[in-house]
């Protein structure tokens, strides 16, 4: 169950307002009707990580392969795994922009595996990237139906470098947010699942 919480960011130098409970969450920019409309500075994740909170800055990439829609994400795989519990069950993490890892369910749906390639299109501007699948991961949830490409590839296909759609979090954020919210201006919101 997702609950919408409004976060107040006084700036990167200060902190983000409390998410309220331990668990996982997704931070988006205030006023964004959908995560794909959100724009956050990648440093938002850096600020959270500096406070000991696992954070994964991510770019959302809507894709289609042979008529089958699926979700790809531009993300650092180790950050993604830290917040989702993803575990590689085959292959290795991407080490170059033209490499990707795929969730076990999506690999089955698309009938692809390690060593095979996929062509990705730009989500919000014309762009193409061809990636080779170098690993397969599993999780307990719906993220098994996604393709994870390096953040650099996500920037090529969607947003400018340094900008992401969302920051996914895991862990107890309360300590990082104690005393935060000095600004009255709402600048971000989070979808949060405890």
Secondary-structure map with pairings?
Elements lengths: L2 E6 L13 E8 L10 E2 L1 H8 L3 E12 L2 E7 L2 H8 L2 E5 L7 E5 H7 L6 E5 L6 E11 L7 E4 L1 H7 L5 E2 L1 E7 L1 H4 L8 E8 L1
Parallel strand pairs: 5-10, 7-9
Antiparallel strand pairs: 1-13, 2-12, 2-13, 3-11, 4-5, 4-12, 6-9, 7-10, 8-9
What would you say this structure looks like, in words?
The chain has 194 residues and is an alpha+beta fold. It has one domain. The protein is 18% helix and 42% strand. The protein has 5 helices and 13 strands. Strands 1, 2, 4, 5, 6, 7, 8, 9, 10, 12 and 13 form an 11-stranded mixed β-sheet that branches. A two-stranded antiparallel sheet has the order 3-11. β4 and β5 form a beta hairpin. The radius of gyration is 16 Å and the shape is globular. The N terminus and C terminus are likely disordered.
Summarize the structure.
By secondary structure, this protein is an alpha+beta fold. It has helices at 43-50, 77-84, 104-110, 151-157, 174-177; strands at residues 3-8, 22-29, 40-41, 54-65, 68-74, 87-91, 99-103, 117-121, 128-138, 146-149, 163-164, 166-172, 186-193.
In DSSP terms (H or I, runs of 4 or more residues), the helix count works out at: 5
Tally the structural domains: 1
Helix-and-strand structural type: alpha+beta
Which stretches are low in confidence, meaning pLDDT under 50 for 5 or more residues running? 1-22, 179-194
Please state the average pLDDT score: 81
* Proportion of strand residues: 35-45%
What overall form do the CA principal axes indicate?
A: globular
Helix/strand order:
EEEHEEHEEHEEEHEEHE
* Largest sheet properties: 11 strands, mixed
Proportion in helices: 10-25%
How many β-strand stretches? 13
CA-CA gap between termini: 8 Å
Radius of gyration: 16 Å
